Amino acid sequence: MAKTYDYLFKLLLIGDSGVGKTCVLFRFSEDAFNTTFISTIGIDFKIRTIDLDNKKVKLQIWDTAGQERFRTITTAYYRGAMGIMLVYDVNNERSFENIKNWIRNIEENASADVEKMLLGNKCDLADRRQVSKQRGEQLAVEYGIKFMETSAKASINVEEAFYTLARDIKAKTEKKLKEASNPTKSGGHALRAPEISRKPPVWLARCSIL
Amino acid sequence: MSSSVEIESLKDENGKNIYTVLCTFCSSKILNPGSSTYVNIEVAVKLHRMQRKDEEEVEEEEEISDYWMVDDMFTFENIGFSNTVENLKYLICADCEIGPVGWHNLTDQKSYIALSRVKHD
């Protein structure tokens, strides 16, 4: 059967336990059904389809599923990841401070060109806030990544955050494809970014997931 | 649950789903029309009954043999995959997480959505 989508991006959610990563994954956090049977087994990943500038984009979103309790995430988890959502809880100072550790972990384990974004979650609980929006913005500037405050519970910015990250990955992918299809005409060797020859094309990335 | 008459009205002459397949509870879109094929599985797979977390737990399985089969998991519009149990991953609604609505077979990579656990619109 013909492929029914244009792009497939593998995204990861990373951050301390309890910051609401799992809630970022779905729409109705309050009345989630999540049956006893399913909660016991646990959720591995979700597939979501979005429309970006008339292109059909499939997002495969993975949650660390408790691995983060060990304060480190293995290289295997990062394999093939094209985008990472770094999530902290604006009501939990510690989770914000740990973002730096998570970024170090990403730098050590993930592909160097993985697209990152910082999310300050649970911004609907204003009276309990420990981390100002400004500090989140500053940290994002420091790392040269995008930033958004979200509330999975109040559905604030969650979808936008995924669209933003996906749009940035799409732009990067298209740029790479363009570069790959237009090698230098003069001279014997075409210079290409090492990632392109090393990594499988987008549509093959799925092979690494199971 | 699904009578043969009912099934006939849901599939076209090639066995493809005529309607959009949606979550029964939150209407999250699972499959587009024409993206899956009807199969009747002789050895019906037992699926745990769907129940909410706040409901009293009932250890009950249901035998279902009518499914929409999907060759490639990325055909799904929105779907969730459970962790692996033996050779299967159970499928759940990506939005409200009700499930299992079917399963994914890791050996042949095919996915099966139970007709009786989704709605068609």
TrEMBL record, chain A:
It is found in: Endomembrane system. Keywords: GTP-binding, Lipoprotein, Membrane, Nucleotide-binding, Prenylation. One of its GO terms (molecular function) is GTPase activity. GO terms for cellular component: cytoplasm; endomembrane system. Coiled coil: none annotated. PROSITE patterns: RAB, RAS, RHO. SUPFAM superfamilies: P-loop containing nucleoside triphosphate hydrolases. It comes from the Eukaryota. Its main location: membrane. It is a lipid-anchor. Pfam families: Ras. Belongs to the small GTPase superfamily. Rab family. This is Ras-related protein Rab-8A isoform X1. It comes from Neodiprion lecontei (Redheaded pine sawfly). The lineage of its organism: Eukaryota, Metazoa, Ecdysozoa, Arthropoda, Hexapoda.
TrEMBL record, chain B:
GO terms for cellular component: cytosol; membrane. One of its GO terms (biological process) is post-Golgi vesicle-mediated transport. Keywords: Guanine-nucleotide releasing factor, Protein transport, Transport. PROSITE patterns: MSS4. GO terms for molecular function: guanyl-nucleotide exchange factor activity; zinc ion binding. PANTHER family: GUANINE NUCLEOTIDE EXCHANGE FACTOR MSS4. This is Guanine nucleotide exchange factor MSS4 homolog. It comes from Neodiprion lecontei. The gene is LOC107217475.
